[in-house]
Specification:
alpha+beta; two-stranded antiparallel ribbon; 2 helices; 2 strands; 15% strand; elongated
Length: 73
């Protein structure tokens, strides 16, 4: 899981929070709409800039999450 300060260094991010600690299991996000890995507030010159920054942040975040293989018994 990316560190909070790494998220805060991304372009346009003014606030952020990580809800799932590194090494913890992410809850099933299809179970409820309030489940998430974290939250970020972004700013930009206009709505297009903010949208581009959101997409960039989502892509960057996903690329920096390491997913462990499922545990089999």
């Amino acid at each position: 899981m990316p560190a909070l300060d790494e998220v805060l260094e991304r372009p346009g991010v003014v606030r952020a929070r990580i809800d799932v600690a590194s090494g913890r299991t992410m809850p099933d996000t299809t179970a409820a709409s309030h489940l998430r890995a974290g939250l970020a507030v972004l700013r930009g010159a206009d709505d297009r800039a903010v949208t581009a920054r959101m997409r960039d942040l989502v892509d960057w975040f996903a690329a920096n999450v390491e997913v462990a293989p499922p545990v089999t018994e």
